[in-house]
Every structure is written in structure tokens, then in C-alpha cells.
UniProtKB/TrEMBL annotation:
Keyword tags: ATP-binding, Kinase, Nucleotide-binding, Phosphoprotein, Transferase, Two-component regulatory system
Top-level taxon: Bacteria
Coiled-coil ranges per UniProt: none
The Histidine kinase domain, residue ranges: 20-239
Whole sequence portion shown: 268 to 524 of 648
Organism: Peiella sedimenti
This protein's name: histidine kinase
């Protein structure tokens, strides 16, 4: 018991330290990014300079993404849950995703014509999707497609962590290198990464799992080495009561990319 206590105190200390550093780093990177954006705007296109600015901006964005992941994890943020229209949310991210992932990755997002809103934290869901998209890209060094789909699912009996009820399954599939059984089993563990020092934090899937669990949903992973990976995020459907209270944006389904 003493060892367990020590362990949890240690984890808390790591969490606080990570959170503090990540927070300051995130602010610094945002300042760098802001200045670079201004420099790029003021400068006429110069084939010798503009690509360098783009590189620096991409690096800063990547760094900000990493620190945001750490923050999200360290903070164990309270959920600010509300009804979220998934097609609108994904469409809203498509430009940012395109810039972050680069031209060799195609994002193919399609949704059913009628999809009920889900009950979750929209900001954290954006971070979660970004984490999944970055993982998918990293698994496809030669490029490829990230396929995003959603479907309604009714559970009449408990299934794993899930209570009976109405859910939307949000799936993110890649055609990348996949995971062996051991990696798959540990992938959502905090700080587990196969990406090497300085590249992975091992907090991406842990954050996604935390969000799913806090929303009353679940996370499942399927993967075949050499073929690819599907991450499924189960999110509870927002009841009509909640939906009419909060008034979600009307759904538009003209394709998110
Ligand atoms: P990180 O991306 O920092 O490594 P994650 O928690 O997001 O942390 O992922 C943990 C590990 O799970 C990765 O290092 C990788 O080995 C594996 N993984 C996650 N997503 C995928 C994917 N789409 N394809 C292949 N492996 C993946």
C-alpha cells in the first residue's frame, strides 16, 4: 500500500510539473506562431524565405500540439459537455487538419444525412481528433488516407464500460503500418510510445480514452500489422431535452473534405 501511495504521489508530481512546463511552452509557441504569421503576411512571396517561414510555423504548430496534449492530460480537465454536431465539428477542423497533416495525407470524412448530436466537450473532442489524425499520419510515412465515419448504435445491454443507451460511434481509420498485439494492448497507457524520445509523449490515446470515459462513452482500437488501424470513439447521444436547451448548430452535411 505504501508503494502504491508513493507511486500515486509521484504521478501527481509528474502531472503538475508536466502541466506547468507545458503551459508556459504553449504560450511561448503561440507567440512565436503569431509573429511568424505576421512576418509571412508582410513579406512578398520569396522562394528563398517563404518556405523557411512555413517550416518554422509547422514546427511551432507541432510543438504547440504536443504541449496541448500534455496539458490536457496533466490537467484532467473538467468536461464542459454540451450537444456537439460531429459533421460541423469535423468540417470546422478540415483546414487546420490539412495544414497540420501535410499534402500527402487525404482526409475523407463522411457522415450519415441524419446524425444526432453527441454529449461531450467540443474543444477536447477537437484535440482528440487531432491526436488520432497525427497518429494516423505517423503510421503512414508514405502518405495515405484518413477515413472518418460515424454511425448510430443502440445498446440494449451493458457492453464493457458502456451502459445501455444510444451512442454514436465515431471511427477514424488509417491504412498505415498497424500495431502488433503487444503495442495494441498498451497503446492507450499514459506515457506508452513507440515513437522515440522527443517524438512521442505517449499521451495522445490516453487523452482520447479519458475524454471518452468522462463523456460516458468508450474507446476501442482495432489494428492489423501492415494493414492499418481503426480507432472507435463511442459517444452518448445528447437527449432531445439537452439538445433543445443548448440549441446545437443546425447540421449541414455537404461533406467535410
Ligand atoms: P504517441 O503518439 O505520443 O506515441 P499515443 O498515446 O497517441 O502516443 O500512441 C501510443 C502508441 O500507440 C504510438 O506510439 C504507436 O505505437 C501506437 N499507435 C497509436 N495510434 C496508431 C496508429 N494509428 N497506427 C499505428 N500505431 C499507432
Amino acid at each position: 500500500a505504501r508503494e502504491a501511495l508513493f507511486q500515486s504521489q509521484k504521478m501527481e508530481a509528474i502531472g503538475q510539473l508536466t502541466g506547468g512546463v507545458a503551459h508556459d511552452f504553449n504560450n511561448l509557441l503561440m507567440a512565436v506562431l503569431g509573429s511568424l504569421e505576421l512576418v509571412k503576411k508582410r513579406l512578398a512571396y520569396d522562394p528563398k524565405v517563404t518556405p523557411l517561414i512555413d517550416n518554422a510555423m509547422q514546427g511551432a504548430r507541432r510543438g504547440a500540439l504536443l504541449t496541448q496534449r500534455m496539458l490536457a492530460f496533466a490537467r484532467k480537465q473538467e468536461l464542459e459537455a454540451g450537444p456537439v454536431d460531429l459533421p460541423s465539428l469535423v468540417r470546422g477542423m478540415s483546414d487546420f487538419l490539412g495544414r497540420t497533416l501535410g499534402p500527402s495525407i487525404e482526409v475523407d470524412a463522411r457522415f450519415p444525412a441524419r446524425l444526432p448530436p453527441v454529449m461531450t466537450d467540443a474543444n477536447q473532442l477537437e484535440t482528440a481528433l487531432l491526436n488520432l489524425a497525427v497518429n494516423a499520419r505517423d503510421a503512414m510515412p508514405e502518405g495515405g488516407a484518413i477515413i472518418i465515419r460515424a454511425a448510430e448504435k443502440t445498446l440494449t445491454e451493458p457492453q464493457g464500460d458502456l451502459q445501455p443507451g444510444e451512442y454514436v460511434q465515431l471511427r477514424v481509420t488509417d491504412t498505415g503500418q498497424g500495431m502488433d498485439v503487444e503495442t495494441l494492448g498498451r497503446a492507450a497507457e499514459p506515457f506508452f510510445t513507440t515513437k522515440g524520445v522527443g517524438k512521442g509523449t505517449g499521451l495522445g490515446l490516453a487523452m482520447v480514452h479519458g475524454l471518452a470515459a468522462q463523456s460516458g462513452g468508450a474507446l476501442t482500437l482495432e489494428s492489423t500489422p501492415g494493414e492499418g488501424t481503426t480507432v472507435t470513439l463511442w459517444l452518448p447521444v445528447a437527449t432531445s431535452q439537452m439538445a433543445s436547451d443548448e440549441g446545437p448548430e443546425p447540421a449541414q452535411h455537404d461533406g467535410a473534405g
